[in-house]
Amino acid sequence: MLPTSGSTTRKLLLAFGALVALFTAASGFALARLADIHDGSHQLREAGNRVRDALELATAVRDQYAHVAHTIILGNASHVHFHEESRARVEALTRSLREQAQDEEERAWVADIQENGDALERLYRDSLLPAVLAKDHATVTAVHSQVLERVSLVQARAESLAHRFDNSIGSFEAHVGAVEHNSFRWALLLLGGATLFAIGVGIYIGNSVARPVARLSEGAARLAQGDLDTRIPENDPGELGQLAAQFNRMTEALRTHQAQLVQHEKLASVGRLAAGVAHEINNPLGVILGYVRILQRKAEGPLAEDLKVVEDEAVRCQQIVEGLLDLSRPGHGPMEKVSVRETCEDVVARLREAERLGQVEVRVEGTASAWAQPLRLRQVLLNLVRNAAEAAGTGGTVEVRIEPDKDGGASVAISDSGPGVKPEDRRRLFEPFFTTKSTGTGLGLAVSQAIAEAHGGRIEADTGPLGGARFTLRLPPASAEREAMA
């Protein structure tokens, strides 16, 4: 399971968070500007209502004066009722304007309208109407002049208010227009930026997620088709890069395990073949060697040399048969805790006594203990040291380095100063019958690897510190059951 705190996850979360924040900011800004536009529209409606009330007030005052004029013309009180209705209308509009006044100047003008309206009402009730009914033309003429003056003042104030309110409508319209323009510009900028950022996030997701996932899918498809050399680039720094690395390690492990299975199958096949024919081959070989050695006692000259060749070849055949038998039974018997250094020194001493080391210097360094079958372990070490000495040649050097592992196992690295192993031969070293020596059987390393694997370990080949080949025998730690037995 991939960790949620990885770099790719954090980047995606940050990118989506920034994208959501940007869209939220754009939406918030647009909503705020819409609220400003709504407020401006509301103020425009209020200003329009004030203009309408001011103009209606001027009209209502003219209507009121018309009823005054009809009273004078008709010379009776037939229009008193209509005058009262007009007066009530003037009063209502004056109150509305008083409530809508925005500053002291407007309130002063409304107060002036109220004062002149009251004076007009008093002139009509107290002076004009009684004079009309009394047929007092001189008084009617004088009062009429005062009424006209009051009506003119009220109309002038009402028209001034209407003009003032109309100017405020223009300023409100300019403000609303500016808000709309700025809102559109900023909204376009924010939404355009959010769109570009979203495109960038999409490209990032394509490069950092979709493309690596596609590579993983393609690699898995190739692996499913049997291509065990499939590798996926690990250049992504996030979780997908870690997943690619895990995929590559899994593929390498699978390739290694398959190679081991193939190798084991080869060894098993050879072992089954060896087990079936070894007995039949050993018996004739034993008879041949027996008669050859009897004849050697009596033979002289060229015949003795020929018999020696026959003996050597028969012995070589016996060694091949023994190697095949070793492949069929690498060893699964009881194990003991042995000193690896003592075993190595004993192997070197035996090879030295048998004159198999020649003029090669062999050094044993380090110490460790391991669980193993002593005879099988000695067989593996003897084969590896003998091969190293043959590769080093006269005057060469072989180094046997023993080291304990941290987990309780041990390793024995056998290095030589010889020419080393060619890269193209390295992967075939442990195949049966593969050899780079003219006199080798090609079974020594295969048998040694089979014995090492029977112990739960393995032999690895690479280049050593002396410039030649290095074969490292790795022995695993002891199990709990073996430690309890000890």
Explain what this protein looks like in three dimensions:
The protein is an alpha+beta fold and 486 residues long. It folds into three domains: 7-203, Four Helix Bundle (Hemerythrin (Met), subunit A), CATH 1.20.120.1730; 236-329, Helix Hairpins; 332-485, Histidine kinase-like ATPase, C-terminal domain (Heat Shock Protein 90), CATH 3.30.565.10. 72% of the residues lie in helices and 8% in strands. The protein has helices at residues 7-74, 80-100, 104-133, 137-224, 239-298, 302-328, 340-353, 374-392, 423-426, 444-454, 480-485; strands at residues 336-339, 361-365, 369-372, 397-404, 410-416, 458-463, 469-475. Strand 6 (458-463) and strand 7 (469-475) form a beta hairpin.
Order of helices and strands: HHHHHHEHEEHEEHHEEH
The assigned CATH architecture of the largest domain is Up-down Bundle
Would you identify the regions where 5 or more consecutive residues have pLDDT less than 50? 1-5, 480-486
What does the overall shape look like?
A: rod-shaped
Secondary structure tally: strands: 7
Structural class: alpha+beta
Q: How many angstroms separate the termini? A: 41 Å
On the 0-100 scale, what is the average pLDDT? 79
Classified by CATH, the class of the largest domain is Mainly Alpha
How many helix segments? 11
Helix fraction by DSSP (H/I, runs of at least 4): over 70%
Strand proportion, as a percent range, falls in: 5-15%
Number of separate structural domains: 3
Please list the strands of the largest sheet in the order they lie side by side.
Answer: 2-4-5-7-6
Roughly how many Å is the radius of gyration? Answer: 57 Å
What is the CATH topology classification name of the largest domain? Four Helix Bundle (Hemerythrin (Met), subunit A)
